[in-house]
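Dear support,

I submitted the protein below through the web form. The confirmation email said the job was done, but the results page showed an empty box. After a refresh the structure appeared. I'm attaching both so you can tell me whether what I see now is the final result or a partial one.
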Amino acid sequence: MKKEVLDQSHQTAGQTSIEPDNLPVKSITGALVALIVIVAGTIIAVRQLYWFTSSKLVQTNELDVPNKLLSELNAADKDQLSNYDVVDQQKGIFRLPIDEAMKLYVKKNGN
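What the results page shows now:
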């Protein structure tokens, strides 16, 4: 029986026939679209990660570095605003802490 089937297929082998094009176009198109979306998403994610990391590095290396001169100026200002001091004793000019000065101003001038 198998020999008969093989003989029949050999006999029809000489005839030309057109085979239908059975490429899975929808599946291939879907796979390509999915691949493009994955690649684009990966590129966007890597760019965002780079931006986040580089901005953090700039923040920590450039902007968070303590400025010695600024620290000294802030300390001097805080000292002047929170301590008593004699500015000019002959003219009667003295420095008061800012809180005391505000209390005296309100007491002298009202609200």
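Response: this is the final, complete result; the empty box was a page-load delay. The CA atoms of residues 25 and 31 lie 10 Å apart.
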